[in-house]
Amino acid sequence: MKIHVKTPEEIQVMEKGGKILSETMWEVLKSVKPGVSELEIDALAEKLIKQKGGQPGFKKVRGYHHTICASTNDVIVHGIPTSYRLKEGDVFGVDCGVFLDGFHTDMSETIRVQKTENRRQKDKVDTFLETGKRALNEAIKQVKPGNHIGNISQVIQQIVEKEGGYGVTRELIGHGVGKSLHEDPPVPGYLAKRLEKTPLLVPGMVIAVEVIYNMGSRDIAFAGTDDWTIKTRDGSISGLFERTVAVTETGHKILTP
User: Is the pLDDT of residue 133 over 80?
Assistant: First the structure.
């Protein structure tokens, strides 16, 4: 395992890219409503990133030709945007990356699709999404010098599996990020070995903390229509929440707020 520790100057560059990504993400999510297609959302994300001076990071992945990955309902990750038009009540996740001055940043968010004027009672899907967001926020609090990757993994697993009763995927996890979109160290959403045996967090490390989980079983399956889209094996709803986070001398800094 080779972990690339960044210099303060490199983290500043990543922070600029992260700002572009974060601004794009929140603007894109405002456009998500019934009747909008995944491809239209993808096109908007690309337009915004370029307008802000960045490049779509995912287009630098060999064989991938879109700005976002679209996760609708039972799609977990790597969903190629299609002409599917979102419907009221769909669960829609956007995973997006920005490449700026030689460095990547990575971010994802999952929401319910609904008309802004609609008012409804909270249901089990809302609770599911709230659990994932809480797991992400609590996991990020573990990012500080002296802690281990396992501290992050443990918190995600405890909140999602023990408190929520949902399934954290094992094959799909967070990761380091920098000059490459996916770098060491792996950042699982579950604790597979003794916490102390997982990589130590040190200032200058930059990681994508990622909560990838399902309402049902944790098992995954390829969609069968392409070599990218991964769905839940049992057809249950999936969610993903992700932020790029730098380890600082005193704690952490979220580069994609």
Answer: yes
